[in-house]
């Protein structure tokens, strides 16, 4: 089989205005950005409203290994699969972060014959939205430093500044830094650091806003720290929320691309999956929901995290209600949940994992059962997509199908990686059937539930924990946020995606444990409170052999080495 | 008169493919980026080669005040002026840096009726080239840190790393920082800092390269520091030059925009004027030189700096030969060179400067005379453009014309700010006449002159210094660079633009002084050696009332407050 890059390069692309026309998006709503992508004006939300509403499908997964489950590939494949059954599928995904593209993970365009093309454009800069978020975020950082330097009118406490800086690069040296050294004109010495741009609250609030006006208001609500009297200091008070919004007037427009099979793809925003929502933008989905027969949107990580945040934060912001959820599972995921194997990012699978072993698959089924329950808990019908690998054995696929049958869930083996849309046609049929059933979608908790109880509900009902261990610091913070009037916000739990528990090494579906809540932070602009449960890394590092070392241009000026 | 933003918004723009067609640029060479700009494929350089060569005009200035002389406005106005005399002028300018846009300086689209439109697009992100440079620069920084962290195969000396990080924001707190704090996995603690992105060597080398292949080779030659044995360590040795180039495959393409009068504008690259060349890109000029009757390109700062670097560095790289140079002068510039007034950025002019006073203008003429000589020293014919202000008095204009007549230089009073191209028609006529004379363009020094002598020639013949005061450190560095084989590179002097001397407070055309050479650095990838003569700030700060505070979006979602 050809490499992802070779498949991408060989793909025949359709002019994007034709792709848009099929979606009901008229030329005046479309701004081409090179030949790879076009931006869609937010006016499309209103102009498309009278068109029929698409079925809304979220693609999630069981708890993945560090290698991932091929969720983007499945999302793209399913979109293409709808084409095979005579329906127009619209795909909605996040913009990849460039940090990991040059690190260990590589790009995030899907893979094989289920890819967004051209993959170089998707993986590198795209239309610059990530950079615009970075710039807006760091303008606020500079304005904070300038405010301290120029007399500190607001009485901002330098020790209570929580707003850091961001860059879209894997740079461990920037995690913990001291700034403001030098001389009298070089600012106030302070300990701070950089996060990767995907972890910026600006990214989170861009992904959750519903209009430019809403973006402006959320920007103003960003809390950067507090005064010496403990009062919150906002971007509005620093008079920078307007300029930050002005920097994002293009970035707020979703990007239209296409798959190798010319299926429309909306690419927009890339918030982190742990400290933020891990879901693509609300505005892209508000356009996509009236642009085809099925809108297939991807949620980051496993169903306990990405889908839970999709149901309770993203859908809360958008007002959209999902019709079905695809749970991606792979043989190697389930084998890993048997607890017998250790999978490490950037290294080959343990060879013994490749031997035929349906018993290991069954031994790991508890995680799949829990994630099925997590989707059903929101009143949504799950469909299992087994993302097939050439190293899988038929008996192992059968084991997964047996578990699905026991749970009464539709399931198919999907060959979209090798066969594109054709390989996902059966999956598309199953999803179409699930969508035909009435959706009983509902959120997990009401807005007026106290914050600590919201965390408790998620810990118990999604993760299978017995309860919470709230640190004294976290308890004080929760109390402070309730007092500050943030109690009605949803919670966005920052937890490892590699386990249902807070310990990444615990596989399957552990019971008899409690969720530690170490600390609680607020993204007031984005509109959620995020409890920190375990060590969250918000700035990745590079590996001993980063992908950057093999990426280059060839003699024809084409990019090589991207994967 | 309307505000710049109001004029920009009212401008009727022509579809860019029509603008390009007039330039002989076929649709297959053009990639639209939104409606504001389009990228031009570098294939245009070859495809346009058989078309007639345009006359090549550089716009420079006398030594400006901190308020600037309106050089971009004049460049744009002159381009429009050629339209008034039945010729096609092509304008080539740098991309503005966003840091100053939100700081004290505001945008850099020109002004009044001589503007590049839409000014919001030009001033904010444009097509993302500046961000791509930032990302490529910082990937190298991360790879350096990672190299140290993962065993330091090359034996890079942490104390000898000269490669910093960059961001396009005015953030004084980032000038001097300590990175790599935290724990064992968080890198190696080091003292370092950020420069503004315009000061990145990646920006300088992008502006000087002639092709993607040349870019790749220059990238590999970047020196980031040295080993413990004193051997240079390059981006090639760190295996990151390919990835950095891959990140710039779009950024290398010049951006096509237009003026309020639909004159074509090539916007490309924005290297700093002191530690780098301060000139727009070579590739843009290689396209523009066959795309019209006159290619009008702007060089940063005064003729002693920007034009000198244009003649001796940019033209050396491009192989192009200029036909004329426009020297922009304003009444307030000349009055300031009388030494009687102090002009401060961000503050109104001293009111007494506005009183009619042709004697002050004459008292400041020495600077104008020196800059005329500086242009002539390169065998190029100067034309003086007096950029008229409503507060000027006719007697003051006459004083400048008298000086010009004494020097035998064509001069016109230009009203392009208030009257657009019509106001610059006379200037266009004068420039056309100058271009009709044979050009005797030559560089100031041969490649094989020792580095220290190159500096001496510039100091004497451009700045009017008696000689050099080379510090012991600088002398050692010059010797080191000669030994390393960099002796044939041109020198790019980092000096204040506010004086012909190295002291920004000294006005006019001082004599009897020596140029201090404090330190010498090498931009081996960009291909020049840069002696530091005085304090060079490579990361600006924000003021007490930054422009960011008044920029916002209005109820229609339009950007307001940009200037």
TrEMBL record, chains A, B:
InterPro entries: Formate_THF_ligase, Formate_THF_ligase_CS, P-loop_NTPase. Pathway: One-carbon metabolism; tetrahydrofolate interconversion. CDD domains: FTHFS. It is an enzyme of class 6 (ligase). Pfam families: FTHFS. Keywords: ATP-binding, Ligase, Nucleotide-binding, One-carbon metabolism. The keyword Nucleotide-binding applies. Its EC number is 6.3.4.3. GO terms for molecular function: ATP binding; formate-tetrahydrofolate ligase activity. PROSITE patterns: FTHFS_1 (PS00721). It catalyses: (6S)-5,6,7,8-tetrahydrofolate + formate + ATP = (6R)-10-formyltetrahydrofolate + ADP + phosphate. The keyword Signal does not apply. One of its GO terms (biological process) is tetrahydrofolate interconversion. It comes from the Bacteria. NCBIfam families: PRK13505.1. HAMAP family: FTHFS. Belongs to the formate--tetrahydrofolate ligase family. This is Formate--tetrahydrofolate ligase. It comes from Pseudolysinimonas yzui. The gene is fhs.
